[in-house]
């Protein structure tokens, strides 16, 4: 089955001076321009190509990788605005992504970087973008468990912290008290479910919570000490940034963890770092 708006594995069926023709199933054949054709490709071989509709609404192919395919989110920059909507840089030189005015939560300006969801408009068949995410999220119950690891995309900043998209399916919130390190719209990272409320809203954390958090970090500290010959130049006096770079955790959690390891006799805390016993 051919999926327009996504990368497809397509057979080369004909060579031409200006490129090769690919078998696009029910769409017939489509041209892959010469500049995108891998050297030495022959008829009968297959190419991974992204399919989209060009400005004339004709099927087109490219080996360039878009920032986001249909069904995905991506951080894009607005390149132009007209009476139809805004046009975002999609990662494809020949084609910007249209974000119609009806799909904008607020008016978009040239040069602005925004998170965009890419989908196929059922009425027109066109691939477009939207910044109205609510209609794509929270369509199924949030059946997560505490400390479950999930994939996050930071979607927006609020007075409470950061709203994030969880596993591409649900809204979640990282409260300011749980934020450490640098977060920004469009950032992708791993996180953990802190709790699922009765109303279905998901509270998130950037590290495991409770005893599981401490146990997980303890293992990481010991593992890194072993890899580094038994010494790390980090202790309870180190800068939060240095601790975050090494373990993706807060200074407070790190201090409690190495304190526990010290009491267990597993490490020694020295003036310039920690040492494995």
Automatic annotation (TrEMBL):
GO terms for molecular function: nucleic acid binding. It comes from Vibrio marinisediminis. Belongs to the CvfB family. Transmembrane segments: none annotated. This is GntR family transcriptional regulator. Residues 3-64, 69-132, 145-207 form the S1 motif domain. The lineage of its organism: Bacteria, Pseudomonadati, Pseudomonadota, Gammaproteobacteria, Vibrionales. It comes from the Bacteria.
């Amino acid at each position: 089955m051919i999926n327009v708006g996504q990368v497809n594995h397509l057979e080369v069926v004909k060579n031409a001076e200006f490129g090769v023709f690919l078998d696009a199933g029910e769409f017939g054949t489509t041209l892959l321009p010469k500049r995108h054709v891998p050297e030495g490709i022959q008829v009968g071989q297959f190419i991974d190509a992204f399919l989209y509709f060009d400005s004339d609404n004709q099927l087109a192919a490219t080996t360039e990788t878009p920032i986001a395919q249909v069904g995905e989110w991506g951080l894009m920059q607005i390149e132009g605005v007209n009476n139809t909507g805004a046009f975002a840089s999609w990662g494809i030189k020949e084609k910007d992504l249209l974000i119609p005015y009806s799909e904008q939560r607020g008016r978009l300006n040239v040069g602005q970087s925004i998170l965009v969801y890419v989908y196929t408009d059922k009425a027109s068949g066109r691939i477009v973008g939207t910044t109205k995410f609510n209609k794509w999220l929270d369509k199924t119950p949030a059946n997560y468990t505490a400390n479950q690891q999930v994939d996050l995309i930071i979607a927006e900043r609020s007075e409470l912290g950061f709203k994030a998209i969880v596993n591409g399916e649900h809204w979640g919130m990282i409260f300011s008290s749980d934020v450490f390190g640098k977060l920004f719209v469009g950032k992708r990272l791993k996180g953990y479910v802190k709790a699922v409320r009765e109303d279905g809203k998901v509270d998130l954390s950037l590290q495991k919570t409770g005893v599981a958090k401490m146990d997980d970090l303890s293992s990481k500290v010991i593992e890194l000490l072993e890899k580094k010959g038994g010494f790390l130049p980090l202790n309870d006096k180190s800068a939060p940034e240095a601790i975050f770079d090494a373990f993706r955790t807060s200074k407070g959690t790190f201090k409690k963890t190495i304190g526990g390891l010290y009491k267990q006799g597993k490490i020694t805390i020295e003036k310039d770092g920690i040492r494995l016993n």
